[in-house]
Specification:
By secondary structure, this protein is an all-alpha fold. It has helices at residues 2-23, 25-43, 48-64, 66-71, 79-82, 87-123, 136-165, 176-188. The chain has one domain (2-74, 86-163). The longest helix is centred in the middle third of the chain and has 37 residues, at 87-123.
């Protein structure tokens, strides 16, 4: 299990590196969009290439940051249901959901997208709009995004399995949206634990939060 956890943490590092790098594209999108608008208004000059570049950058942000969002536990959940369940039940839902839904879906998309991207690249496909960009980089973003998501899904499966079956402490970050929901519930029900969580349990001999040191 230690080797699998090291593999999972390696995937996490790659995902974090890509996600943080892609996050800077938000600034690039803003600058491109603002610059295009200013040039169009002041000089009455515009180009489909600038518009399509905005679409490409948005696609890069959405697809390449999806794995980082999963790793940071920031994907949207039905919190009113999730927070009413015990920690172990949520772990089992994540574990089974990754096996049954996430990993097969990501693998299917990779299998379908590979020839789609290859055909676009070999044919030199370009936009049908005048002055538009080449198409294959945008399609490659789809493939790259699902590859990263598949790898991160494997990492999450390993970590969730380690918590359920090997007594590892849960290292999953509490996403900002889930933390806010948990805080709202604590205000409504002060005696209830935040997010409906149970006292964390770790491997034998592991000191957990709130446990006095012996």
């Amino acid at each position: 299990m230690s080797a699998l956890m090291a593999f999972a943490r390696g995937i996490d590092r790659v995902t974090t590196f890509v996600g943080r790098g892609v996050s800077w594209l938000v600034l690039v999108v803003v600058l491109v969009s603002a610059g295009n608008a200013v040039i169009r208004k002041l000089f009455d000059i515009s180009s489909n290439a600038w518009l399509e570049l905005q679409w490409y950058l948005f696609g890069a942000i959405f697809m390449l940051a999806a794995a980082w969002t999963l790793q940071r536990n920031e994907h949207i959940r039905v919190d009113i249901v999730s927070n009413s369940l015990s920690k172990r039940v949520r772990d089992w839902i994540d574990f089974v959901g990754h096996i049954v839904i996430l990993l097969p879906f990501a693998a299917l998309m990779i299998w379908l997208l590979w020839p789609y991207v290859l055909q676009s690249f070999t044919s030199g496909e370009r936009s049908g709009n005048a002055g538009g960009l080449i198409i294959w980089p945008a399609k490659a973003l789809l493939l790259g995004g699902f590859l990263l998501l598949l790898l991160q899904g494997i990492s999450e499966l390993i970590k969730r399995g380690a918590v359920l079956f090997a007594g590892y402490p849960d290292e999953t970050p509490q996403g900002a949206s889930h933390a806010a929901e948990a805080m709202e519930l604590s205000v409504l029900a002060p005696d209830a634990p935040l997010g409906g969580t149970e006292k964390p349990t770790g491997a034998p001999g592991t000191l957990t939060s709130g446990e006095p040191r012996r």
